[in-house]
Each structure stands twice: as structure tokens, then as C-alpha cells.
Write a structure and sequence with these properties.
By secondary structure, this protein is mostly helical. It contains 31 helices and six strands. The chain has a six-stranded mixed beta sheet with strand order 2-1-3-4-5-6, with helices on both faces. The radius of gyration is 29 Å and the shape is globular. The two termini are 51 Å apart.
């Protein structure tokens, strides 16, 4: 039987234990144990503080507004520990209403440490929180991601008998979810005697935050069965899950649902719809939503530009960027330029990429982040400018991360530069010695040049360090259901129809000119075995399942967790021609739209 939240938490039984649980002795909250800490900052600030104190003491009665101002001044100037004595000095004037106002003000101002400080001082000075205190302070705890503090507050809530309060319980769901304790969030939700739409939204947000997108769809179905009416915020959360899953049919159903139920196409819903359609590979529908929106913000433009980029429509992305800054007078941010540089990268627009990267700093005053450098390294490396990419890395003001070096190693593999690849390998293994992808890229580089002795050394190194590679995983949506497939080393029970179709497809495709690309397959097996191993890649299993289960003429949409391999890319191109089916594959980096034997990436990926 599932444990109740009460038994799980094992709530403290007295106030002193709660207060002790809420004490902090390490950074960032240096809250001292003493209630009578003295101010230690500059003499001018001390003089200002003394003057404020005299004014307040001489002007009876003490005003709540001025008292809040004094405490805020003290915390801002002298820190938490030095300000704690004010709660003792004015204990006759500080009550729960004043503390609640301060906590709300600090939380709304994103001063979350300040909010928690006031809450801890309430307990230390015998000021009992009430039902208005907890939702606000829990929001700050969630933003600070202090789960242990959140559990301590949860204990207080249970002891005070407030755990049935719908607003407090909803805040707990949100807190646990944002602190990556989604099971606790779900348990609190399940034990709520009353729920409202905000409670459902909090659970959806929790699952989205923890990248549990299938669970988001399950919760949405539960919500409908329970008779709770979704609002715009609900739809934004569900559309986010659809976007990540590539669940176009479900996303379209939600679009129609909002239209039928007259939910507003506000800027947040509209932006989420554009993002969903773009990440499902339907850019035309994303454009329609964009044009229908009366109000747009920078996030709306960013998802449109990024959507164009990931779908291989780099020119459209750059035109949208120009329109955004020239006609609509929006100021681009770092995310805007990330989309622009990705567009240049996917299309091989090297000169344009150099120009935009420079203008980011010189024209718009934006400091490139590591993601922007990663795009430039990828752009330059894929185009063959390997040494320029290396020089850019060496000129970075920040330390290059493993992703930067991996982009360069991937470029070395594409262009067969073993010498530079081995240099990059040393950097990668120094930073990330247990990532299997680093070893596979190096092994593939050696395999291209038939350096089998080097390939064997890489494999031995992986075995010695017990390094596992991430298995390929692909999903496809059929009749509003998402089916998932994982790469296999051979036939699995229950997949007989898929294997039979794949064997038949292989014969037909060879007659149409398909030749399996076995260059990256294991070197110590026969050529025929290499071809067989390629047939069980996850995207091919998903493709065969889609052909079996969907009507002819329907576009097959597949999402893969890794970069599509060269053999599968060639395989899909021929399938789209022989079987006359449009195929859309979203891999880790971008979309590949296969139509009539041609891919939208123009074989540049």
C-alpha cells in the first residue's frame, strides 16, 4: 500500500524541532543562531540605520510600512544574520500579517532568500504562520530548489492541520516538482481532498520540468475524466509535452479543442502552438498560427526562427530575423541569435554565420554564450574550416565544455582529420572520460580510414572503463498513440511482422539502388552480418511499424534521441521514393524531411 505523505515525512512534533530544521549554517543563507547579532557594515550605513531606528521609536505608533522598510534596508545593507535582531527588538509590532506581506513582496520580486529568511524569523520569534504564509514561501523554496527545507515546511503544514488546504497543497505539488521530486509531487496531489485547475496545472508543470512528457499527456486525460476544465495555462503545458514527443495528432487535437471551447489565443498559447508545430515538423501550420496572433513578443519570434532553422529552412529564418529587427523593432536576445546561428549551421551558410556572430557582440551588445560558440564550431567544422574552429575555441573567454570539443571531433570524423581528432580526443577524455559518445566518434573516425588496430584500442578502453553507449531510441505516433522502439542486436519476440517487412523492404530497396553503408559497423564481422545489424536500428523499426499500421499517403513522423546515421539516412531516402511515402525524422539536432528520394537537409547534416 502507498505510504501517506504524513507517514513519509514523519513530521516533527514541536516548534523547536521545526525551527532547528529551518536553520541554515552554510552558504548562501548565512542565518546566525543568535537573535541579537549586531550590524557590522560601513559606518555610514550604520548611521542611516540608527537614524531610522530613532525616528521609528520616537514616532509612535510604529507603522508597518516603515518597519518593513527598515528590515529590508537592514537585510540589503548588512545581510541576514545582522538583521535577525530586529525581529526581537520589534517583537511587539511584528505579526503574521506583516511577515506575510514581506514574504509576498520578496517572492514577487524574486528575492527568494529574503522570503525564506522572514519565514525562519517568524518561527524563531514565536510568530505563527497561517494559510496565507505557506503558498508564497513554498514558491520561493521551489525557485531555490531547497527540497529539504520544503519538506520541513511540509511538516509544519501537517502539524498545523493545513494540509487539506487546496492552495497550500497545490504549492506543495509545485515545490516538489520543481525540486525534481516528482513522485512526492504526485503523492501530495493524489491525497488532496479537493483540487482546482491550478492543482492540475501544477502537476503538469512538475512532469514537464522533469521531462516526463508522456505522464503529462496521461495527467491531461485524467483531468478531462475528472471533469476539470482546462485553461490557457493548461494548454501551454500540454502543448510543450506534445512538442517534445513529436505528437502532432495530439497537438492538433488540442488546437481544435481550444478553438471549440473558445480558449484565447494569447501570446503564451500562440507561442506554444508555434513551437509544437515546428517541433513536429509542420512549419506551414506554425506560420499560420504566427500570422493569426495579434500580439507577439520576443519569445514568439524566437520559436519561429528556431522552428525554421531546425526544419532546414535557413533562408526563412534569416528573413524572419531581419523582419523582426527592421520592421517590428524587436531587440534580439541570446536565444534569437542561437536560432539564427543554428539556421546558418544547418544550411552551411558560413559567411552569414560569421557576420551574425560578430554583429551579436558589436551591433547588439550581447556577449556570446557557450552555446553560440558551439554553433560556430559546428558551422565552421562541418564546412571544413577545422583550424579556424580550433582557433575560435582557443580564443574563448570561457572554458570550452565537452559539447564544444565533441562538435569539433565530429567535424574531424566528417573530414577524416585523424591528427586533429586525436588532439581533440585528449581534451574530451580529460573533461568527460565516461561519455560513450566520445569514444564512438573517435572509433568511427578510425574506421573511416580502416585503422582497425586503433578501433580495437578504443573498444578495449571502453570495456576497461565499463563505458556504455546510449542506445538509439525512436518513437512514432499512430492513431494518437506514441510507440517507442529501441535498437536491438537481433530479433525480439513480438516484432515478427516488423522484421518480415524490413527484410522485404531491403530487397526492394536494393533493386532501386540502395547500398547499405557498412563503414561504421563492427569491423570483426562479415559484410552480410554488418547489413543485418544495421536493419535493427530503432528508426528503421519505427518506420516499418508506421508502414504496417498507417494508411497509404499519411506522412510518417519519427523522433529519434540520437543523430540519424548515414545508412539510415540513405535508407529513408530510397523508402520515400519506392513506397511513395513522405517521412519526417527529428533527430537530436534537426529535422530530415524525406520526399521522393530527396532529403530537406540536402545531405548536409
Amino acid at each position: 500500500m502507498k505510504r501517506s505523505v504524513k507517514s513519509f515525512l514523519q513530521a516533527p512534533s514541536n516548534l523547536s524541532q521545526w525551527t532547528c530544521a529551518l536553520s541554515f549554517s552554510e552558504n548562501p543563507l548565512q542565518i546566525a543562531e543568535s537573535k541579537h547579532s549586531h550590524l557590522t557594515k560601513s559606518s555610514s550605513n550604520r548611521a542611516n540605520m540608527d537614524q531610522m531606528l530613532r525616528q521609528m521609536i520616537n514616532n509612535e505608533p510604529i507603522d508597518h510600512f516603515n518597519l518593513m522598510k527598515l528590515i529590508d534596508f537592514s537585510v540589503s545593507s548588512h545581510g541576514f544574520a545582522a538583521s535577525a535582531h530586529l525581529f526581537t527588538q520589534f517583537d511587539g509590532f511584528i505579526d503574521s500579517n506583516l511577515c506575510n506581506s514581506m514574504i509576498k513582496c520578496y517572492t514577487d520580486s524574486n528575492k527568494h532568500l529574503h522570503s525564506v529568511f522572514v519565514y525562519t524569523q517568524m518561527w524563531r520569534n514565536g510568530i505563527f504562520p497561517d494559510s496565507s504564509t505557506f503558498p508564497t514561501v513554498l514558491k520561493s523554496v521551489a525557485q531555490l530548489c531547497r527540497q529539504e527545507l520544503g519538506k520541513a515546511i511540509h511538516c509544519c503544514i501537517i502539524q498545523m492541520g493545513l494540509d487539506s488546504n487546496v492552495y497550500i497543497s497545490t504549492a506543495l505539488v509545485n515545490m516538489y516538482g520543481l525540486c525534481s521530486s516528482v513522485n512526492d509531487a504526485r503523492q501530495v496531489f493524489d491525497e488532496m481532498p479537493e483540487r482546482n485547475v491550478v492543482s492540475w496545472n501544477a502537476l503538469i508543470t512538475s512532469y514537464n520540468h522533469n521531462r516526463m512528457f508522456r505522464e503529462v499527456m496521461d495527467v491531461f486525460r485524467e483531468m478531462q475524466i475528472a471533469g476539470a476544465k482546462p485553461v490557457e495555462v493548461t494548454m501551454v503545458g500540454v502543448l510543450m509535452a506534445c512538442a517534445h514527443l513529436g505528437a502532432l495528432n495530439q497537438g492538433r487535437w488540442i488546437d481544435e479543442y481550444m478553438d471549440q471551447n473558445r480558449l484565447r489565443l494569447n501570446v503564451f498559447v500562440g507561442t506554444a502552438l508555434i513551437d509544437m508545430y515546428a517541433k513536429c515538423g509542420v512549419v506551414d501550420d506554425a506560420e499560420k498560427i504566427f500570422k493569426a496572433m495579434r500580439v507577439k513578443n520576443i519569445y514568439t519570434w524566437n520559436v519561429l526562427i528556431s522552428g525554421y532553422a531546425m526544419n532546414g529552412r535557413g533562408e526563412s529564418a534569416l528573413k524572419a530575423f531581419s523582419r523582426m529587427i527592421m520592421m517590428e523593432k524587436f531587440k534580439p536576445d541570446e536565444v534569437t541569435f542561437l536560432g539564427v546561428l543554428c539556421a546558418c549551421c544547418h544550411q552551411g551558410l558560413v559567411n552569414e554565420g560569421r557576420m551574425y556572430f560578430t554583429s551579436m557582440k558589436d551591433k547588439f551588445g550581447l556577449r556570446p554564450r557557450i552555446e553560440h560558440y558551439g554553433c560556430m564550431v559546428d558551422l565552421l567544422g562541418r564546412a571544413g574550416f577545422l583550424h579556424e574552429a580550433l582557433q575560435l575555441i582557443q580564443s574563448m573567454s570561457m572554458k570550452p565544455d565537452p559539447i564544444i570539443w565533441r562538435e569539433l571531433l565530429g567535424a574531424c570524423r566528417i573530414h577524416g582529420n585523424i591528427q586533429l581528432g586525436e588532439f581533440v580526443k585528449e581534451k574530451l577524455l580529460e573533461l568527460e572520460p565516461n561519455n560513450g559518445e566520445n569514444y564512438l566518434l573517435l572509433a568511427n573516425l578510425y574506421a573511416q580510414h580502416r585503422r582497425w588496430d586503433k578501433v580495437e584500442k578504443v573498444r578495449e578502453m571502453m570495456d576497461h572503463r565499463r563505458i556504455q553507449k546510449v542506445p538509439g531510441c525512436s518513437s512514432i505516433e499512430i492513431d494518437h498513440m506514441v510507440y517507442e522502439f529501441v535498437v536491438t542486436n537481433g530479433m525480439k519476440p513480438g516484432f515478427e511482422d516488423i522484421y518480415e517487412l524490413l527484410a522485404d523492404m531491403n530487397k526492394k530497396l536494393k533493386l532501386a539502388g540502395y547500398v547499405a553503408d557498412t563503414g561504421m559497423a563492427s569491423y570483426d564481422i562479415e559484410e552480410e552480418e554488418k547489413e543485418d545489424s544495421l536493419m535493427y536500428h530503432s528508426e528503421k523499426l519505427a518506420l516499418a511499424f508506421g508502414l504496417l499500421k498507417s494508411p497509404s499517403g499519411l506522412t510518417l513522423r519519427i523522433v529519434k534521441n540520437l543523430r540519424i546515421c548515414q545508412d539510415c539516412h540513405g535508407f529513408f531516402k530510397v523508402v520515400s521514393k519506392v513506397y511513395e511515402r513522405d517521412i519526417s525524422v527529428r533527430d537530436r539536432n534537426r529535422f530530415h524531411h524525406f520526399v521522393g528520394g530527396v532529403c530537406s537537409c540536402n545531405d548536409y547534416w
